[in-house]
Structure formats: C-alpha cells, structure tokens
Amino acid sequence: MRYKSxxxxxxxxxLALVLFGLQLVFGLxxxxxxxxxxxxxxxxxxxxxxxxxxxxxxxxxxxGFMGATYWIISDESRSELYxxxxxxxxxxxxxxxxxxxxxxxxxxxxxxxxxxxxxxPHKIAIVVCMLIFLYNIVMTIRQSGRFTTTEGVLLLGLxxxxxxxLPALLSWENYVIAIYYRWWTIHLWVEGVWEMIQGSFxxxxxxxxxxxxxxxxxKWLYVIVGLVFIAGILGTAHHYYxxxxxxxxxxxxxxxxxxxxxxxxxxAMYAYFSIRRxxxxxxxxxxLHWTIGSALFTLFGAGLLGLAHTFPSINKWTHGxxxxxxxxxxxxxxAYAMIVMAVISYxxxxxxxxxxxEGSAVGYWAFWxxxxxxxxxxxxxxxxxxxxxxxxxVLGIGYLxxxxxxxxxxxxxxxxxxxxxxxVLLFIYDFFRxxxxxxxxxxxxxxxxxxxxxxxxxxxxxxxxxxxxxxxTG
Length: 474
Ligand code: HEM
Ligand code: HEM
Ligand SMILES: [Fe+2]
Prior knowledge:
- This protein has helices at about 10-35, 45-75, 85-105, 120-145, 150-165, 175-210, 215-235, 250-280, 285-305, 310-320, 320-350, 360-395, 400-405, 405-430, 445.
- The longest helix has about 35 residues, at about 175-210.
- It has a single domain (about 5-440), classed as Cytochrome c oxidase-like, subunit I domain (Cytochrome C Oxidase, Chain A, Up-down Bundle), CATH 1.20.210.10.
- By secondary structure, the protein is mostly helical.
- The two termini are about 15 Å apart.
- It contains 15 helices and no strands.
- The chain binds protoporphyrin IX containing FE (2 copies) and fe (ii) ion.
C-alpha cells in the first residue's frame, strides 16, 4: 500500500466479503428447498431466497469491483485518491442500499425483473453511487496526470456498466419488451463490459506478479476488448430465441455468441503466456493462484459451458433449466468472484498488518476447497439439468414429477456447496484475522525480498534518469 487513501479498499472488501457469506446462506436455503418438505415455505419461499441469493451476488461483486478499482487507480496513477471522503460517502450509501434492498425482498418488495429486482429508490441510489465513484476515479487520474492503458480499459468497463444500467430504470407493461431490454443490462454486463473490468484487473495483476512487460501485456488488452465488442454485443441475441421477437435473431444469436469464447481463450492464453515467458517475479503466489485460476475457470464456466447451450438447436431444449444454473454458477464464479478475490489476495499483505507475502496455509485451503466445491456444484447442476431436460422436455413428464426423480443431484449439490462454503468461510476468516493497516507502507520496505518492478524503481515516482515518465514501471 503505497498511498494512504488505498486503505479505503479495505472497507469495500470487508463489506463485499460479509455479503458474499450471506449470499451463500441464501444459496444453501434455496438448494435445500429442492429436497422438501420446506418448513420455511410461508416465511421464506424459494422465489424470495433465490432473489436474495442472486441480488447479494451482484451487490457484493460490484462492491469488490469498487474496492479493487480504488486500490488499483492509486497504484496505476501513482497518486492519492482525489477524495477519500467521497469514497466513504459512496460506501455508506451503497451499504444502506444493499441492506435495505435485502430487507425489502424479505417482504416481497421488488420489481420481479430477474437480477434487477431493486425497487426504484434503490436503483436511483445505485446511479448516485456510480456517479460519485466515476467522478472520484476520473478526478484522481486528472490530478495525477498519469493515465495507463489498464486504467483506460477499466474506466471504459465501469463507465459503460453505469450507462447500461439505465435501461433497468424503465419499466414496461409488455413482458416481451421488458425482457428484451433486461438483457441490455444483464447480458451486456456479464458478457461485455464486465469482461473489460476483469481484463484490466488481470492486466494489473499480471504486470505485477509476472516478469512480462507492461507494453506487451497492455497491447493484448486491446485485442481482448476488440473481441468482446465484436462477439458480445450481437451475442445478446442468444437470449432472444424464445421471447417473442422476430426469427432473424436465431441465426444472429447462434453465430455471434459462438464467437464469444474466443475472447475468453485469449484471456486465458494471456495469463498463461505472461507467466511462461516472463516467469514469476513476485512472492505472492497465492494471488497468482487466484489470478491464473480466474482466467482458466472463466474459460471453463463461461466459454465451454456457455457454448454448450448457446446454439438455438440445443437451447430450445435447455432454456431456463438447471443447465442454465450450471453455467451461471461456474461463469460468474470464475470471472467475477475469483478476480475480486485475486485483487484482495494481492492487496492483503500490505493492506493489513503482520502477514507474510506468500499467503497463509488458511489462504491455500480457502482456494482449493472453493475450487473443488464449485467444480462439484457445477457437476451437480449439470447432471440434474441433463436429467431434467431429458425427462421433462424430451419425454414430456411433468415438472414436479421430474423434480422428484432428480432429487439425488441436489444431495450432491448440498454436499459440494458445503465444501465450497467452508472454503469461502476460510477466505473471510483469513481476511479479518489481521487488523487493517491505515498508514502507507512500501512493499519493498515490508518485504525486502520483493524485487522492484522492471525498469527504474517505481519508488522514484516512475521517472527515468532524465526525468521522463517511464511507462515500463508499475
Ligand atoms: C453455497 C453455495 C451455493 C449454493 C448452494 C447455491 C444454490 C443455488 C440455487 C439452488 C439456485 C437456484 C437455481 C434455480 O433457479 O433452480 C441458485 C441460483 C443462482 N446462483 Fe447460486 N448457489 C451457491 C453459490 C453461488 C455462487 C458462489 C454464485 C456466483 C459466484 C452463485 C450464482 C448464482 C446465480 C447466477 C444463480 C441464478 C441462476 C439462474 O437463474 O439460472 N451461486 N444458486
Ligand atoms: C463471464 C461470462 C458469463 C457470465 C457471468 C454468464 C452468466 C450467465 C447467467 C447468470 C445466465 C442466466 C441468466 C438469466 O437467466 O437471467 C446466463 C445465461 C446464458 N448464458 Fe451466460 N454467462 C457468461 C458468458 C457466456 C458465454 C460466453 C456464452 C456463450 C458462448 C453464454 C451463454 C449463455 C446462454 C445461451 C444463456 C441462456 C440460457 C437459457 O436459455 O436459459 N454465457 N449466463
Ligand atoms: Fe448472454
């Protein structure tokens, strides 16, 4: 932590992790309802627990993005944040919004638009937070005078995320129109602009963890952004197959969404080759696990398992079944949960006190239990989904009869999800067991074995001998 104001990231990460833990409670509740009988049916029905589960996911991941951005922007621009006060005001509004939204869902207060259930006052609070956030980031970059490619892509991702939330503020009577615009937010977030956020976090981490050159790594970032744009935008059509819009969306959706995994292959190769070619230069091997893990798990969960049901000829059988849940879990976890945990793991040794740089044994247990647990959960949803599609859609057996026949897969889901949840609890425990550090300290001062970033030391504010700004350094 080179700048005092980077400590705001700690409080964002802390809130994100508490909400992550709560998300899992509602996930386990949702899963156990599949086994029935449900003693909480009248108090907490499935639609309520699932809404809270998925909304907490969106809120904690965005909280993680905000914390990670505040951390990264200072490092990249080599400057204190423009306003620490604004960052805390934003956090307080955000936390109140998130907590009251969940309380509202408990009483059925929401719009019913999947993943965008937030009532209008909460949506307005979200917009206000985003505006404060973007203002603070832009002003930090302006005051520092240093603007890197990594920051450019990050800003593009964050700014577009805010703009793409605007369609969610409108409401339509007609369900076809409502669902048509819902994907402008949801699909274009997770398969478009959030991938830019993930890509820029990856670039930031790889520049620091591997020995590869910033110039080379940042050039590839442009390629990834280009691929995301080409495939992701028209790929939205893979949600338009059966919602009551014209037929021409079928071939468009099939073709462009099938191209989407190319960007994800690019991202995984990017991570792999930067380590192969550049080697590991930084002792924080735990953060490296999360970084490479995120790129690979995204390729599996989003690329492979997304492709598995994206063609109309397959999606007509699998649409809205547990196959969707299989892909939703693996993709969201790999791309967004893991990249947030990667930035947290990278920041922790200097963001908190009395840690070693390599990561703790608890930290490694957290990583591997989550890996095994999420892989098992994905397989449980997949086997349940395959059974469901065959029995319900091919043989035409009724929905509830089928649910009884596939219950065994939910036993497997709960076992693997419990393993996953222990991994998450260990991550949370590892985070909170050391006090936050509120004063800046340099990595090299705290851990003398850490080699400085390439080129002249970044402790000289990144200037070369003749005073020019050196883009090679961190
Ligand atoms: C203890 C761990 C978890 C359990 C037991 C669990 C369980 C569930 C269940 C039962 C559903 C409802 C599926 C349906 O509609 O039939 C669900 C939905 C969902 N969960 Fe989880 N979950 C867990 C963790 C996670 C994590 C870590 C993520 C993401 C990082 C996640 C993302 C989602 C998403 C995106 C949906 C909506 C999927 C859809 O509607 O197709 N869950 N979860
Ligand atoms: C990180 C990237 C991704 C994430 C986080 C993600 C997440 C999700 C989630 C949560 C859903 C359920 C949405 C809902 O029903 O409300 C979904 C649906 C879907 N995703 Fe993805 N996805 C990603 C990438 C991809 C890619 C690259 C493809 C295709 C190659 C894909 C194909 C699909 C399809 C076809 C559906 C609709 C399933 C249905 O018809 O029920 N996804 N995705
Ligand atoms: Fe999509």
